[in-house]
Design goal:
The structure is a single chain. The chain is an alpha/beta fold and 354 residues long. The protein has twelve helices and 15 strands. It has two domains: 5-109 and 288-351, Periplasmic binding protein-like II (D-Maltodextrin-Binding Protein, domain 2); 112-264, D-Maltodextrin-Binding Protein, domain 2 (3-Layer(aba) Sandwich), CATH 3.40.190. The protein has helices spanning 43-53, 69-77, 92-98, 129-137, 146-151, 172-184, 186-191, 208-217, 228-233, 253-264, 301-315, 332-343, and strands at residues 5-11, 32-38, 60-66, 83-86, 102-116, 126-127, 163-167, 204-206, 222-227, 240-242, 248-249, 287-295, 297-298, 346-347, 350-351. The chain has a nine-stranded mixed sheet with strand order 1-3-2-4-12-5-9-7-8.
Length: 354
């Protein structure tokens, strides 16, 4: 299983259907390569975008490294990439470290699935929120624990040890997962907390969504958390997790959209928002935005123009490729907020998009 994946794609200069864009004649004079790095959460969608662009204008290329959200943020801070990708927003401390304004632009919505390797059980396992936290705290250690048995009446849960699998790298997928656990478990909030990388009480670490998927798949009795597409592509069963109403909800486009609906009406100005454990019928509690993070003022106009055009395409036409990969398209209210962020990108102090 590859832990580092690189996309090299041709971007359509002046992408068909993209509204806005720089004035004629303001684009690059020759071939341009845009570099990005970060979230493995986004990688299946980025791969699809790559396939869509492969036969198009090769004058602008995108080199995206799937290294995890923590790595993407570090590279943005080091100014070694044109953009980063993360599923956990940058902290106030990280933004201050950047020394210049950083924009958070949501590009997709997705679900963190709780994947299990439990061949003895057919159908979807029901996981109470507090019990899920107790599993990752090391308090619930066997699959036939009374708390799990009570939530799954009539299911023959085996007397088998639970093997916890978690990310070993800095990860926005981790951020979404532990943000949820901190909301449902005071003990988790107190002992472990919320970050893209935490000190795990128990379990085995693996790098990237790819690594966690592979380790869960090869370990009977394992449980881990991955972006939904990784579980589905590898035929891993996913659990239904109880939301604040006690309703067991499985991850899906519809349940992620339900979780995002309330957040879209009350987004903060910087678009850094958590939608885990959202209220409402049918809302999947482990849902989250995935962002591109980019410096607001870019020093190189040769790359600033195609970068802004690419991000504009991603939040508009690019959303058409979300649903087949089990991501939820951005709600219109979020897209309009993204437009404002992208229009604020400047090069040498001048707007890149009109």
């Amino acid at each position: 299983m590859k832990h580092h994946a690189v996309i090299l794609i041709g971007l359509l200069w002046g992408a068909s259907g993209c509204r806005g864009g720089p004035p004629a004649g303001s684009g690059p004079s020759g071939p341009v390569t845009l570099t990005g790095a970060g979230a493995t959460f986004q990688y299946p969608l980025q791969s699809k975008w790559a396939a869509e662009y492969a036969a198009r204008d090769p004058g602008v290329r995108l080199n995206y490294q799937s290294i995890g959200s923590g790595g993407g943020i570090r590279q943005v801070l080091a100014n070694t990439v044109h953009f980063g990708a993360t599923d956990g927003p940058m902290t106030d401390e990280q933004l201050a470290e950047a020394g210049a304004p950083i924009l958070h632009v949501p590009v997709t919505l997705g679900a963190v699935a709780v994947a299990v390797n439990l061949p003895e059980v057919s159908g979807s396992l029901r996981l109470p929120a507090g019990t899920l936290a107790d599993i990752f705290l090391g308090r619930v250690t066997r699959w036939n624990d009374p708390a799990l048995a009570a939530a799954n009446p009539g299911v023959g849960l085996p007397d088998k040890a639970i093997t916890v699998v978690h990310r070993s790298d800095g990860s926005g997928t981790t951020y979404i997962f532990v943000d949820f656990l901190a909301k449902v478990s005071p003990e988790w909030k107190r002992k472990v907390g919320v970050a893209t990388s935490v000190a795990w009480p128990v379990g085995l670490g693996a790098k990237g969504n790819e690594g966690v998927t592979g380790l869960v798949k090869q370990t009977p009795g394992a449980i881990g958390y991955v972006e939904l597409t990784y579980a589905l592509q590898n035929d891993l069963p996913v659990a239904a997790v109880e939301n604040p109403s006690g309703e067991p909800v499985s991850p899906s486009i519809e349940s992620v959209t339900a979780a995002a609906a309330a957040a879209a009406a009350d987004l903060p100005d910087d678009l850094r928002v958590s939608i885990t454990n959202a209220p409402g019928a049918g809302a999947y509690p482990l849902s989250g935005f995935s962002w591109v993070v980019v410096r607001r003022d870019l020093p190189d106009c040769e790359t600033a123009v195609p970068l802004a055009r690419y991000l504009w395409w991603a939040v508009h036409e690019g959303q058409a490729f979300s649903a087949p990969l089990h991501y939820a398209p951005l709600p219109p209210a979020v897209v309009s907020r993204c437009e404002a962020k992208l229009r604020s990108i400047t090069c040498d102090g001048k707007p890149v998009l009109p």
